[in-house]
Every structure is written in structure tokens, then in C-alpha cells.
Specification:
Blueprint lengths: L1 E13 L2 E13 L7 E7 L3 E3 L5 E3 L4 E8 L6 E8 L10 E9 L6 E4 L9 E7 L2 E11 L2 E2 L12 E6 L3 E6 L5 E9 L3 E11 L8 E2 L27 H6 L1
Antiparallel strand pairs: 1-2, 3-4, 3-16, 4-5, 6-7, 6-17, 7-8, 8-9, 9-11, 10-11, 11-12, 13-14, 14-15, 15-16
Length: 244
């Protein structure tokens, strides 16, 4: 992110005379060096959009493989979906509360909300109509707890940055595989995440990348797969969409 300060001179009309006033403005420009690729999204309870823009809901609790390679499972992106206890009228609703990314020759990164009201090294300030809410966020690199502004120079191929107040971006600089985690809060869901994941088009050529986020190949018909990579028909009838 680059910061620019622009100096200006403005002429103001003061009664019958012009008065020159000098002022400055600060602009922030964020350069995105990522190659062309596919962007997926997951938000809410949870609504999922695959790399090829197939939309579905996954309202279950547990740890889910969002993307992995069948040929090299060392690459894996996981998310934790946590059930919402406060919804007595709908127990089968969950939200994203954790993201973990690992890859060959890269440190494993985890960003999550702590369980059982535990404390955290990081607090994210969120403002809404009810005032200030603070969400605790854990950040681990290879299992070691860290602050989000900690020096990570010992990991030259990893970049973790804060974007504004409540967004966190994790980038593997060798491949540009990345995830952007937006910390959110609501009275119903509590602290949870909105996650966007990016895969370059040329990532792992010749391998089969599968998971809840599908395959980055501009073909949504093969995004619905079994864990072994077998392509399943995308549900079309309402009954199939709800119960398959």
C-alpha cells in the first residue's frame, strides 16, 4: 500500500477579497500484483460462491476443506463453520469462525475467533448503530500465536496485512494464492468471518483441485464433486437442493 500526500492551494472569497489557503490531502493506493485467476466468496450462514460462481449454502458445523489438490494434499485451505447457539428456532445455522491455509514449502497460517470466550492477542474494533464491539481474533503461523502487526520477515514468502480496520489479507508470495478475511459482528451471529479466496489460473497445472470452492476452470458444472474428485450432477430440483 502506497501513501500519497497532495498539497493544494485554494482561493477563498472573503467578503470582497480572495484569500489563498494551503491544505494537503492524503490518499492511499493499494497495488494488487495478482495474476489473472478465480475469486470465491463465503459469507453469512454460510452462503458459498465457488471459483466458477456456483452458489449454494452450507449450513452445517465442522471443519470443511474449501480447496485441496488430489495429487498433493499438502495444499489445503480449510474453514471452520460454527453452529449458532442463539437461534433456538433454527439450530442448523452456522458461520465461518476460522480459516487455515497450508502449502508446500510455506508456513501454515490460521486466523480464527477463539473458542469458549478465550482471550486473544488481537482485538478488532467494529462500529455499528449500537456503538463499539470488539472481536477477538487469533493469528497463528506454524502453530505460534502472533499479533497481526508482528514482524514476519522470517517468512519471506508470506505476507499478512491489515486492510483498513477489519480486513486481513494472507498472501503466499510465490504463488499468489491468497485469502481475505473480513471480520464481522451481528447480534445474531456474534463475531464471524466473510472470506474471499483467490487462486491463480496457472496454479498447480495438471492437478485436480477440489473442495467446497470448486475448481478454477470456468466450468461450474464440475464444481459439485465427491471427496475423491468424482463429478456429481449439480442439483436442479428444489428437493435436491434442500436434501441431496
Amino acid at each position: 500500500t502506497w501513501q500519497f500526500e497532495v498539497c493544494n492551494v485554494m482561493r477563498l472569497l472573503n467578503d470582497t477579497e480572495y484569500v489563498e489557503v494551503e491544505y494537503s490531502q492524503v490518499f492511499f493506493y493499494e497495488y494488487d500484483p495478482r495474476p489473472s485467476g478465480c475469486l470465491s466468496g463465503e459469507f453469512g450462514d454460510p452462503h458459498v460462491r465457488t471459483f466458477d460462481r456456483l452458489d449454494f449454502d452450507c449450513q452445517a458445523a465442522g471443519e470443511f476443506v474449501m480447496a485441496t489438490s488430489l495429487e498433493d494434499p499438502m495444499f489445503q485451505i480449510q474453514e471452520r463453520f460454527t453452529a449458532i447457539d442463539s437461534l433456538s428456532n433454527c439450530s442448523q445455522v452456522s458461520v465461518s469462525t476460522g480459516v487455515a491455509i497450508r502449502d508446500t514449502n510455506m508456513p501454515t497460517v490460521q486466523i480464527s475467533t477463539p473458542r469458549n470466550n478465550q482471550t486473544s492477542l488481537n482485538m478488532i474494533d467494529l462500529w455499528d448503530a449500537n456503538g463499539l464491539t470488539q472481536c477477538p481474533v487469533d493469528f497463528y503461523v506454524d502453530g505460534a500465536a502472533k499479533t497481526l502487526d508482528e514482524d514476519l520477515s522470517q517468512y519471506p514468502n508470506l505476507a499478512v496485512s491489515r486492510l483498513g480496520i477489519h480486513r486481513i489479507r494472507v498472501v503466499h508470495l510465490d504463488t499468489y494464492v491468497s485469502a481475505e478475511i473480513r471480520v464481522q459482528y451481528s447480534n445474531t451471529f456474534g463475531c464471524h468471518f466473510f472470506v474471499q479466496t483467490f487462486l491463480p489460473e496457472a496454479y498447480r497445472p495438471g492437478e485436480t483441485v477440489v473442495g467446497l470452492l470448486g475448481t478454477c476452470n470456468a466450468d461450474r458444472s464440475d464444481d459439485w464433486r465427491a471427496s475423491d474428485g468424482a463429478i456429481l450432477p449439480v442439483p436442479t430440483r428444489v428437493e435436491e437442493k434442500l436434501f441431496s
